[in-house]
Structures are given as C-alpha cells and as structure tokens.
Amino acid sequence: xxxxxxxxxxxxxxxxxxxxxxxxxxxxxxxxxxxxxxxxxxxxxxxxxxxxxxxxxxxxxxxxxxxxxxxxxxxxxxxxxxxxxxxxxxxxxxxxxxxxxxxxxxxxxxxxxxxxxxxxxxxxxxxxxxxxxxxxxxxxxxxxxxxxxxxxxxxxxxxxxxxxxxxxxxxxxxxxxxxxxxxxxxxxxxxxxxxxxxxxxxxxxxxxxxxxxxxxxxxxxxxxxxxxxxxxxxxxxxxxxxxxxxxxxxxxxxxxxxxxxxxxxxxxxxxxxxxxxxxxxxxxxxxxxxxxxxxxxxxxxxxxxxxxxxxxxxxxxxxxxxxxxxxxxxxxxxxxxxxxxxxxxxxxxxxxxxxxxxxxxxxx
Amino acid sequence: xxxxxxxxxxxxxxxxxxxxxxxxxxxxxxxxxxxxxxxxxxxxxxxxxxxxxxxxxxxxxxxxxxxxxxxxxxxxxxxxxxxxxxxxxxxxxxxxxxxxxxxxxxxxxxxxxxxxxxxxxxxxxxxxxxxxxxxxxxxxxxxxxxxxxxxxxxxxxxxxxxxxxxxxxxxxxxxxxxxxxxxxxxxxxxxxxxxxxxxxxxxxxxxxxxxxxxxxxxxxxxxxxxxxxxxxxxxxxxxxxxxxxxxxxxxxxxxxxxxxxxxxxxxxxxxxxxxxxxxxxxxxxxxxxxxxxxxxxxxxxxxxxxxxxxxxxxxxxxxxxxxxxxxxxxxxxxxxxxxxxxxxxxxxxxxxxxxxxxxxxxxx
Lengths: 364, 364
What we know:
The structure is a homodimer. By secondary structure, chain A is of the alpha/beta class. The first copy, chain A, contains eleven helices and 18 strands. An eight-stranded parallel beta sheet of chain A has the order 8-7-6-5-4-3-2-9. In chain A, strands 1, 10, 13, 16, 17 and 18 form a six-stranded mixed beta sheet that branches.
C-alpha cells in the first residue's frame, strides 16, 4: 500500500504525444530531445527511453556527468553536451563517443589536440553565439575560425548550433536578427547539421527549423507559445496527502509567522507536501490546489514538509486524512502554478524534491 | 580529476561545532537533531552520523520513508516521525521501533489499536497544537485526552511536544502564550520528555527548553537569531566552475529575455551552475558571487544550467575557464544569499539539485 505523503506522477505517454506534436510542426527537420538536468527534473532514464520509442536518436545534456549517465543506459544514442569539454575529460568523451558542443577556440583546441594526439577523427558540434552572450564563439572567434579552418584539424563537425534569447516573444525582432546571423555563418562552416530552434523557436516558423530542433520543456508539457493556447498536453501531476483536518476559529492563526488568520470558522487540512518537495514557498497564502474539481486555497505559509489548505467550502467527506490533493494537476497545470508562484515552469520542474514518491505511467 | 561544474561542499565539522554551541545554550536539556528533508538537503546519512559523533541520540524526520532510511544506517538511534502514522504503516513502525508523533485522536487510535492487537506496549509522542494550526491535537482533542486517558491504552508516551510559530521574532507575545499553554497541558500528560523549542526557540531562554530541543537549521549554519549576529558557523559552500569568459560591448545583451545590457565594454564569465542546481532564478541580475574576496555581480537571467557574472573589474588571471566561483561561501553566507533572493535559507538548502557534485569535509 502506498502511503507516500507527496507523489509526482509523470505521464510518459504524454511526453511521447508531445514529441509527435512537435515533430509534426517541424516537417522534415529532425527533433532532438533535450534531457539535461535529469530531463528537467522528470527523470532522464525513463524520459530518454520514452523519447527513443518515438524515434528520437539525438539527445542533448548540459554536463559531462549527465552524458556519461545517459550513455550507460543508451549505448547507441547520439549524445551531445552543451557545456562542451573541460581539460581532463577528453579521454572519456572519446571512449564513450560523446559529442561536445565546442563553445570557444579554447575548447576547439582542447578537442583538436586530443584528436591529433590520438591520431583519430573526433566528432563535435560548434556553438556560435548570436545574442545570448552566454556560451559559444563570439563574433571575433567566428571570424578567426572562418579565416583559420585549420584549427579544426582532427575534428569532424556534426551540428553547428546557436541559441535564441527571446524565442517565446514572437514579435521581438531579435529573433530574426539571430536567425540571419546564424544562417550566414553556419552556411560557411562544414557541419553536417544546423540547429537553432528550442521549444519556442519551433513555433516561430519553418525558417527557424534548419536541420534539427532541440526541444525540452515543450515535451514536458509547458506551453512554448505563452501568448496562445498550449499545443502541448500536461505531463506531470503533483499531489499531497491530507494528514489532518482541523477546525480553526477567528482567534487562531495558521502556520509559521502567523501570516494567515481566518475570517470565519474554518476547516483547515494539513497536507504532507512542502517546499522541500518542490511546492514553492512563494505560494504561501496564494497557491490554489484542488480536490477533484473543487478549488481549495493554500492558507498560511508553505513549510518544509507541510502545506495547509482551506477546505471549509467542501463537503466533509471530500477532505479527510489520506485523501490526495492536486498541487499541479488537471485543473492547475504547471504553467498556471508557475505563473502564480512568480516563476517559470522550468524552475517548478527542476525543483522537485528527492523525497517525492515518483510514479511513471504510460498511456497511449 | 574533478571537473564538476557545480560543487556543494558540506563541512560536517561545522555541523558538529554548531551542535556543541546549541548544546551549551541548552544546559541540561537534551539536543535532538532534526534531519528531515534529507537533513535540509545536506544528506541525512552523513549528517546524522556526524551528529551521533557528538552524542546526539534522538532524531526527528518528517515522513515514514525518511525514518526507515535513517533506521537502516542507525540501528540504535531514537527516531521520531513528525507526520505521525498513516493506516497501513503500523507494522513497519513497530518492527523498526520508529516512534510516531501522534497528531490527532485518530492517529492515537490507529497506534493504540495496533498495540492492543499485538498485545504489546508501543512507544509514541504526542503533539499538542498551541498555535500553528498545522499538525497536533487541537484544544478540544487535548481536553478529550485529559478526560479519557484510556484512549492511550497500549501506548507508552515518550515526548510531549508542541511547535512554536514565531520563535525567530523574540518580541512576539505569541511565544509566551504558546509556552504557557504547552506547559499547562503537557504537565498533565504522562510523557517521559517534554519538548517545545526549535532552533530559534533555544535562544528564547531556559523557560522554553523543557527536557529536549529539536534543532535543525541552526546546526546547518543558518542564523536562528535574525536580529543579532549569528552564533552559528557556516556549513555549506556552493561553487560553480567558469566555462568561458567573453568580451561584451554595449550593443549586446546577456542571457534569456535579453534582460541585461552592459553599460561599458565588459568581460562576462559563464559559470556551470544554474537554477537546476539550486541557485535561485530570483537572483537574476541581482545575485552577488565571489572569486576569492572579489565581489562579482550576477548579470542576466540565471538559466537552468548556467549563470553569467560580470568580471570586468577583476584581474584577467582571476577569472579564467576552470576557475571556481563562490555562490554561497565565506563572503556570501546562506542567510545573506537567501535574503537577496527574497526567500529563507531553508529553501536554498532544500533546493540543492541532484546534479551538484557533493563533497563532505570534516575538519575539527
């Protein structure tokens, strides 16, 4: 019997359906799965295998550690590392056939030197910065690379990529500026594939698709088109179990800091979920949870392991110890919860705690 | 060679030193370690063993799952569960000698029924609510218990406890109201130990100490006396590794949403740490990091795996790829970081990501 207090259910069937939806938008371009940060907190192993079932062959992670972990479960996958390569990692990257995204002339030199020393040709990607100012070759380095292609000695170039800074804002002219800059330089480099679009970039139209899109958050159910209805289906459900229900009158406050005082005799349910599980502190006195389709407000401060909700307006039999409450679910999808919490769905997903009991379902 | 991009160093010697400091404040009262939520994100196994080295014998966790995990590494410890017991868990609690904190007459009946059916005496605690309105017997249930002590049949009462709502606010009269209410009822119940104080409660003075204090966050280095200098020493250090350093002129923006534009030609370092590692998104364009004793501001939006810092004013050799940057450290302790992030140190600690490379040190 499952008596877990906080439960995260991850619908891999929904991940697969979202993969198919994005692929339809892409037409002939390839769809790579971005599974960094433990697949945005949802579990890289189960998520990557679900994507593979849909035909996904190319995966992106952030760090070498993530790449090595993914390789151990997917011996054949095409695995790319956004952080690129640090001195000392060359041997393991080469042995495990991990492809670093080379972000600078320094990283290109590191990889090229290893290839030459090993008398091998080693595959890699190149990241051209076109406006993020975060990772990638800057304009001066791009120019140097075009003039001195010999720095690529020993390197077999796979993906030439760049990263959009404001893709979720369709009307922002920076998107087209980045697209044009990327198209111009990428066209002069000998890579096999070109890639610019992230989740939101896919929905900017075919001119942003190039050969391959790198999609993460849309697969996991967040809306990549914030100004329009979401084309994605929900993937996650976050539930907490009621431990206790109590009557509270106006003389009493609720929770740490005594931040909530009831305005009428109330019934308050205490639920075994808190910010250590990933339900944000910023939803104190502000979150909205559900029992079935009934809305119940979070009252008092969210604490580490517990959250209190006002169930006064519910029939008593609906709010009893043992009952599960939806903190993210059919009536409060992750986009809406993030919005209320003053954050973005990404932080909700990557913030899920270790203690959560995780259940994977896969319905077609 | 360690090439991890984001590193969390946990000083178990500092945890032990904090344990000794709190114990000195307690005089003869016992000091129990609160190690729920994976010891506030720091790792229950290592932390609990470090506390045991200092003589800690009584531990509190939030959930049954945490208790069972702790039992597997500490066969002799005295383990208590704040959530109490859910129907179905009785057998495993009894077999593993886990002591539930009974929060309601319903939980008392669950535990008593199991004891009677097993013809055993089973140990438990009782939680009296005196103002949190979260868990614990409310006033009506407390009255019922005093009038009908037979509901405790088969239960050997260990700790009678309550929980302070505003202990970090010394001047708040609610502290004394709770203390008086607790003292009155607890004196009428047959428990072996009485407990009211959490970390901040210890510093409210001896009248709050009773037989046992339950201390978590102070052991882990956060200040339990926010209005005064912290009596605790720092336990954690959060570092990220520089991946790349670039020059950015005024025409360029930095990061997602293009939220940062430099006001002079600048050098920006991109560091392999992001909100998936637990560095808060709310520190975008606001956080302060350090290289040695040099302050470097976070610029642009913190992203999932990367954070950008302005290193223009640093000597070039101090900010180079491979170099570690302090995001929580000697110059920016967790209290200060939480304050800047608009949150509390608890959420920073419990929010540390799985991907962090964890290093435990124990210096005396």
